[in-house]
Amino acid sequence: MDFELKSLSHQQAARLPVDALLVLVPDGADVSGTADAALVNLIREANRRGDLEPGVGKALSCYRPQDIKASWVVLVRSGDGSASAVRKAVLAGMALLKQPGVKKLGLLLSLLDQDALAVRVAIMACADATYCFTTTKPSAKARTISQVVLGVSDATAARTEFAAGKAQVTGVELAKEWANRPANHATPSMLADAARKLGRKPGIRTEVLGPKEVAALGMGAFIAVAQGSAEPLRFIVMHYSGAAKTSAPVVLVGKGITFDTGGISIKPAAEMDEMKFDMGGAASVLGTFAALAELQPAINVVGLIPSCENMPDGLAVKPGDVVTSMSGQTIEVLNTDAEGRLILCDALTYAARFKPRSVIDIATLTGACVIALGAVRSGLFSARNELAQALGQAGDQSLDLCWRMPLDDEYAEGLKSNFADMGNVAGRAGGAITAAKFLQKFTADLPWAHLDIAGTAWKSGTAKGATGRPVPLLLQYLINEAGVATKAPARAAKATVKAARQK
Ligand code: BES
Ligand code: MN
Ligand code: ZN
């Protein structure tokens, strides 16, 4: 899907040679014009007759309206013009316009007061509304809209939002593609190949470690999860270099379980297919790197993806087995279905070598997080207030919401073991938090945050499919961080010192 940004008045939009025109109508839009004002006349008439109902997302479809070049015009209410209202409006309009006859679409935002701010969210909503997974279903109706012309009052003023929006779409769509693929079309080796392919893009470099190298690193917890599968594990290391070598990177760690059967602690059959999405964290890291390659922000980022299957097998790790993690801490594997934390803990230990500015792991980690927060907000865990705030803000800005959860030390009580430094589970109560407490034991002095995306990475039911979350949040966080790094290096350095002192 190609996007184009243009300065367009409503008069110019009326003459735009497109198959269809989607017009966002904010509350209180100025529809006073008369001469050469086919679009505002249309809106005024629709208002006067009550044909365009009040309410965000309410739409009116018009065929061959007078003096408008596009043969199909959809007016859609966009309320106060806030990001969430714009998203709702565009999704509603696109649901109507998703027809084979519409190849080139005009999307008019210039009636909005703050149309530059609406650009990113409008682009994302366009892409979300028309996304279609075809890799293993060639008969599916692929996206037919190939070009979208965004009309704003001042294209120059909207340029950065436009670039960020396009990069975000690239990232979200790559994340969706990989997360949606069934496990036999997305093995650890295939994920590694996808990462290698991204490594050919500007600023990106990819390394892939296999079982031998991972064993040499001493990643006993990761290896324990992988040992029950015929598919060899992969540890993917990606670098995006957008700033000076001396600039500390942000490290993103994505859980890459390409299928989670639960292992010997096997899961029930119902909905087990959805455990193909258990590499949603990994997919979000791949997606974020694709977006970085496109946007080229001034920041360094490292992506780490421990990837394997979690299978029951004669060689599989058994409940009660004790394994030694890369950190040297021993772990009693009380439940082989709590495998995400086992692969992540070794990747978090590995992350320390980059002397990171921050480390964020992204994982479909616990069913308990789905119970706690549902599908609306991802769980955010961090002992660092500044980092938690930055991620919370990035989520708000990008409409990819998260919610901070507690990390009191009392939650770690249940992880005690008589046979190892810790167990890998701590009972049902507060399961999302105890999982985070487990990970925290491997983050020592790192400025670390954990995003539990078990409820947000995919949708179940008839709309089953990956969401591409939290690529928008991660990209926004990195853009914000890059702003800090380039515009005010002194302030960024001071903030780091302050954070170090607070520890
Ligand atoms: N991948 C699952 C978490 C999950 C479950 C995500 C359902 C989304 C929907 C994870 O590996 C897992 O199995 N976690 C266990 C942990 C438990 C054994 C402590 C869980 O949540 O049940
Ligand atoms: Mn599991
Ligand atoms: Zn899992």
UniProtKB/TrEMBL annotation:
This is Probable cytosol aminopeptidase. It comes from Hydrogenophaga aromaticivorans. InterPro entries: Leucine_aapep/pepB, Macro_dom-like, Peptidase_M17_C, Peptidase_M17_leu_NH2_pept, Peptidase_M17_N. HAMAP family: Cytosol_peptidase_M17. PANTHER family: CYTOSOL AMINOPEPTIDASE (PTHR11963:SF23), LEUCINE AMINOPEPTIDASE-RELATED (PTHR11963). Presumably involved in the processing and regular turnover of intracellular proteins. Catalyzes the removal of unsubstituted N-terminal amino acids from various peptides. Gene3D superfamilies: Leucine Aminopeptidase, subunit E, domain 1, Zn peptidases. GO terms for biological process: proteolysis. GO terms for molecular function: manganese ion binding; metalloaminopeptidase activity. It catalyses: Release of an N-terminal amino acid, Xaa-|-Yaa-, in which Xaa is preferably Leu, but may be other amino acids including Pro although not Arg or Lys, and Yaa may be Pro. Amino acid amides and methyl esters are also readily hydrolyzed, but rates on arylamides are exceedingly low; Release of an N-terminal amino acid, preferentially leucine, but not glutamic or aspartic acids. Residues 335-342 form the Cytosol aminopeptidase domain. The keyword Hydrolase applies. Its cofactor is Mn(2+).
